[in-house]
Amino acid sequence: MAAHPPLHPDGPLSLALAVVGSSTVPLLLLDDVLKVIAASASFCRVFQIDPERILGRFLGELGTGEWNKPQLRVLLEATARGNADIDAYEMDLKGPRRGVRKLVINAQRLDYAADQPIRLLVTVEDVTDARAEDQLRDDLLREKCILLQELQHRVANSLQIIASVILQSARRTQSDETRLHLKDAHSRVMSVAALQQQLAASRLGEVELAHYFIQLCKSIGASMIHDPARLTLSVEADDSSADADVSVSLGLVVTELVINALKHAFPGGRSGAIRVGYESHDGAWTLTVADDGVGMPKDAASATPGLGTSIVEALARQLHAQIHVEDQNPGTRVSLIHSPLTLVQNPSLSASSPV
Fold first, then answer.
1. pLDDT in tens, 118-128
2. Residue 57 to residue 59: CA distance in whole angstroms
3. Whether residue 9 has pLDDT greater than 50
4. Alpha-carbon gap, residue 346 to 322, rounded angstroms
5. Distance between CA 274 and CA 40 in Å, rounded?
6. Pick from 165, 157, 166, 198: nearest CA to 184
7. Prediction pTM value
8. What is the distance of C-alpha 67 from the center of its chain?
9. Can you tell me the distance from the alpha carbon of 165 to that of 117, in angstroms, rounded to the nearest whole number?
10. 277-309, pLDDT tens digit by residue?
11. First CA to last CA distance, the chain
12. From edge to edge, which strands make up the β-sheet containing 99-110?
């Protein structure tokens, strides 16, 4: 293979000068002691430096001395020695007219040949306006999140008022069937209010599911379990988190399944326990609600699905999860199982008692 002809002594410098001269972004070409060999017109314009007086001056002498930054000098000297590269180094520059500007600096050593002088190519980007826009966007997002939490508080309070009105109506009615339906409606409204309270109290962004389920079950138990010594409601969950939309759906599933267990699993004052479980791994998760009650009725397959069944089925489809119902002898275990590898078509609760 033929050897490349040697570079002309002025070749590397001429090429670097051409690059700097044609650049539309602020560029500096420095030597090994940080003297300016060339500067782009955009650099002089952006930082208001006389192009006639910039060549041959040290970087720290530019302007009124605002470029005399010890840390920047150390980094550039290390780059000139080949010990480092400056990649997106951020610094503040306080100019005499434009105030404090936020800059992003990149620098690299230009290596042509061992006998060539050291050159540094320095790129300077003014990101002041972009950072201000980012800060404004963050402030607006934070304000919206605060307003959303306030709205959640108000919604939860309103739901509790509605639940109270429904309960008062249930107490006044003379019809046992109407009273039963009103109490059922009261329980569901209270469960939705509990969901809203937990979301309002949670941190912005991801919701810690263990704490969320525990507080939710405390709210359900307080409104529906009149004798905690007879019935217990507990939670066993790992340290998983979920976004607000998913946590709402999971919370509604837990509420419907717990209400179902409270209504059907412990007739005649029977004592027992309801356990809510959640575990996840590599994108797959399982949510379970199990009880040690009387189990599924013998005619469960022919039972007419209730409103709760339809709600859980719809939520399962939304969560891309399958529903599995097991007779535990004693009791019943209902699981929602989500796997990223499984396409869920029609989850059902055909084996469960009406919710």
1. 888 899 988 88
2. 6
3. no
4. 8
5. 74
6. 166
7. 0.50
8. 39
9. 86
10. 999 998 899 999 999 999 877 654 544 455 567
11. 83
12. 36-39, 27-30, 119-126, 99-110, 86-95
